[in-house]
Design goal:
The chain is built from twelve helices and ten strands. The chain is an alpha/beta fold. Helix 2 runs parallel beside helix 6.
């Protein structure tokens, strides 16, 4: 699995070139002009609750393969919404996560929760694409983007009324994220080059995140004790996918994660 991030980004560039050929940017801009305004993703995470859950919808991952055989993104989104999720994260990468950009618009038509497009965003086209399909936020990954690439993408995101979850895995990329105006700061417990997971990564980096940012811990969260542990580090929201998707009863597992009392 070493350096799979490089392979994913290279494939993203190839897929992006094909999508640009099939759907012109002007078509996306026209769809955005006709779309309802984006929801306030950060506000959804800050509603009164100990820790908010961003529940993820993804069919597969490079490290685990297919996560749920009876995969129905709209049905899963509805279950998340009725079980207490504050927001949704939807994987749209096709090759490695078996996602589709159409999942965004399908879910948007059925669920009122704010939606994050989770993908390897490297081009403004993808931001327009996300908004045109109903996303309220996008993921921007520090390990994928230089400072010169990150800032313009963040500015475009804000211009379109969306927010960005700017993600880091180490101190260098956390400093890059914090140098921007992004309100949502994600700490990924998964090393995207090896896909190894360490929950302590959030605990190591959380002290460097100012209180005026919304701290989100991503990956490797599987129990209520994990959630309580992260809450003690100042985490306001958690992004959970595999734990929920592999559960026999998604609603019951969500209830367990939301039970944060010691």
């Amino acid at each position: 699995m070493e350096d799979i991030l490089v392979e994913i980004v290279e494939n993203t560039r190839r897929e992006l070139a094909a999508r640009k050929y099939l759907t012109r940017l002007e078509e996306l801009k026209s769809a955005v002009r006709d779309a309802a305004p984006a929801q306030d993703f950060a506000a959804a995470l800050l509603a009164p609750r100990p820790v908010a859950v961003i529940a993820e919808i993804k069919k597969a991952s490079p490290s685990r393969g297919v996560l749920r055989k009876d995969f129905d993104p709209v049905a899963i989104a509805r279950t998340y919404a009725s079980s207490g999720a504050a927001a949704l994260s939807v994987l749209t990468d096709e090759k490695f996560f078996q996602g589709k950009i159409e999942y965004l618009s399908d879910i948007r038509g059925s669920v009122s929760l704010p939606i994050l497009r989770k993908d390897f965003t490297i081009d403004p086209y993808q931001v327009w694409e996300a908004r045109a399909h109903g996303a309220d936020a996008v993921l921007l990954i520090g390990e994928v983007l230089s400072a010169g690439e990150l800032q313009p993408l963040l500015e475009l995101t804000h211009e379109l009324g969306m927010q960005a979850l700017v993600e880091a895995h180490d101190r260098e990329h956390l400093d890059l994220a914090l140098s921007t105006s992004a309100r949502l700061i994600g700490i990924n417990n998964r090393n995207l080059r090896s896909f190894r997971v360490d929950l302590m990564n959030t605990e190591r980096l959380a002290p460097f995140v100012p209180a005026d940012r919304v701290l989100v811990s991503e990956s490797g969260i599987s129990s209520a004790s994990d959630v309580r542990r992260l809450a003690r580090s100042g985490v306001r929201a958690i992004l959970v996918g595999e734990t929920l998707l592999q559960a026999d009863d998604i609603a019951r597992k969500m209830k367990e994660l939301l039970e944060t009392r010691d």
